[in-house]
């Protein structure tokens, strides 16, 4: 449902490598849509390689490799609320521990860079030195992300660290942001601080729960309308006019 909704609203979709729909199924849901693959580096490098090659064949336009979650965090609110995953998903933490390579370093990311000609973006960067290293080894972008602030208690807000990441890359690669984007004004703030674009997660889930594909479209439409209004009220006729002078 998300893939055709995003396509209908003129935006792209990033598919999790843990999704319950396959790379191919999501591509087929919107054959002319814009798709990216979010990727974890698996202990079994052949699994990682297979996912990348499948994304290439399915027409995906880029790989977002997650670099900030070697383990799943302990979510205190879930513990307090006695939240439990349904039985068919209850083994996720064990799966992550067994499948995902927690020892991934920059050499592994360089190996990934050599697998494909697709653009590769480092997802989960919150420090300037890491951003510089990502640029140095030939990655094509940075996604400033804290994994929805769901893994590490006290992790910085992405909007707070965005300016130093933008400064660190010196315009050599594009910088994106996710985390906490709920309104059109949030989009405006991120772009004003140097982000090329933003990604959202939870709002789309809310839309899906509300009314499936149509609900996802409605969420995206609301964001677009709020963003246009925010531009108008700050005197910006074009996206290119959005800049740091709007932020105090």
UniProtKB/TrEMBL annotation:
Q: Which GO terms describe its cellular component?
A: peroxisome
Q: Which Gene3D superfamilies match?
A: Aldolase class I (3.20.20.70)
Q: Which GO terms describe its molecular function?
A: (S)-2-hydroxy-acid oxidase activity; FMN binding
Q: Which InterPro entries match?
A: Aldolase_TIM (IPR013785), Alpha-hydoxy_acid_DH_FMN (IPR012133), FMN-dep_DH (IPR000262), FMN_HAD (IPR037396), FMN_hydac_DH_AS (IPR008259)
Which reaction does this enzyme catalyse, per its entry?
A: 2-hydroxyoctanoate + O2 = 2-oxooctanoate + H2O2; a (2S)-2-hydroxycarboxylate + O2 = a 2-oxocarboxylate + H2O2
Q: Which UniProt keywords apply?
A: Flavoprotein, FMN, Oxidoreductase
Q: Which cofactor does it need?
A: FMN
What family does the entry list? Belongs to the FMN-dependent alpha-hydroxy acid dehydrogenase family.
**The UniProt record lists the keyword Amino-acid biosynthesis:** no
Q: What is this protein called?
A: Hydroxyacid oxidase 1
Q: Whose protein is this, by species?
A: Balearica regulorum gibbericeps (East African grey crowned-crane)
List each copy of the FMN hydroxy acid dehydrogenase domain by range: 1-248
